[in-house]
Amino acid sequence: MITLGIDCGTQSLKTVVLDGDSGKVIASASTAYGLVEGLPVGHLEQDPAIWWDALEETVQKVLTDLGPRKAEVAGIGVSGQQHGFVPLDASHQVIRPAKLWCDTSTTAQCDEIRAKLGGRNKTIALAGNDILPGFTAPKILWLKQNEPANFARLAHVALPHDFLNLRLTGTLRMEFGDASGTALLDVRTRQWSKEVCAAIDENLVSKLPPVGSSTEPVGKLLPALATAWGLSPDVIISAGGGDNMMAAIGTGNIRPGTVTASLGTSGTIFACAPQPVIDPQGEIAAFCDSADHWMPLLCTMNVTVATEAFRNLFGWNHDRMDKEISSVPAGAEGLIFLPYLQGERTPNLPEGCGILHGMNPSNLTPAHMARAAMEGVTLGMAYGLRRMESLGLKPSEIRLTGGGSKSPAWRQMLADIFGYPVVTMQSAEGAALGAAIQALAAATPNESLEKLSDRCAPIAQGSRLEPRKTFDYAGLLETQNHLRQKIFTS
Q1: For a tag on the chain, would you pick the N or C end, based on fewer CB atoms within 10 A?
Q2: Is the dihedral of CA 237, 239, 241, 245 positive or negative?
Q3: Catalytic amino acids?
């Protein structure tokens, strides 16, 4: 049996083919795309049509590679970038480009929603999460206030992966995991919060899709698509989920106690919990996962977006980047990078910017700046990890996924800064693999998701790295925190 896993990211869409019998990824294809150009600072949008075009292109490519084996395709799962607001009219047509997770133009709307709900503490008490610029909720209020004609057409709210599921099946619904990232869901009851919705618009609840279990498929592939792609009309489309939720499945993180760190455009660290983990300060997101558990998660908005900016600035390939970083001692000889190139979510600095601090003639070199950048984004994630520890979440090891996990220098730095052993997965596909595994579970209901994840997402043998105590990274994190507070709160 074969399933497809589709991951719709910020920079590209990837489709992978999972052989359910061997547990191996046997084909893949990806297509890159960009953002809507010419928008003001802080506004980051994409036309959902480019996601669908990329999906069709990559699916056709992997099906061609499969040849006659495409007859074995039994299921498709979709992973999507979280929080993106896809506004649909009554005919399920896209009204305007989607505002993305990294759009930070909604700070005023966050403040307004919080104020209507009685402040941050009452907001968190109502639904389990604070209202942050990255989340979907303030984007809806932004549309109402800034584009009233488009808001008048709004009949359905969708997230990126829901939009793709709709195009695949003709059905619009949400599952618990991605829905929890809207900040409209009460994560304890897994129902839409009428109070939070009413703070945005009295009719908003009626525009939200039905929400249900992440283990229930959305439906079957539309007959027209099955014919066009040469697939069986019985191909099942699983619930799918947000990219972090799918990466949890793709790293075996669907049992309590497991922790994953994902190093992509943004950085996330997330765990599996048997009950909601609610942060009274709102820094750790109290999400649901896509296996009907809960997933406390921290998110930083600047990881490979920052390291790639320096790599491209110096014209290095990834091997050269690793070599240059390894040539500089830990701490970059006093050079510190505050990596808020796109603002920041954790800590909440939507209008933050990147800063290099501590420059002198000896450390003002490309190698030092590259190391400071990598240390800076890793320390940013460690800030959230320390907050997770304060809520009682302490991993025995951390599983790594995402593009950044391919760097040997970075993997050791992660172990050293986090203070925990790190391991990598046999497959680096993460979210796309998780979507394929979920689809496999939907197509084989007699098999548990846990067993399928164990078989299809094993840890790479010999990949474990222990933290070293050769440098005071805890002290460097304190220094970074002090600088941040001094610069951005003074």
Answers
A1: C
A2: negative
A3: 243
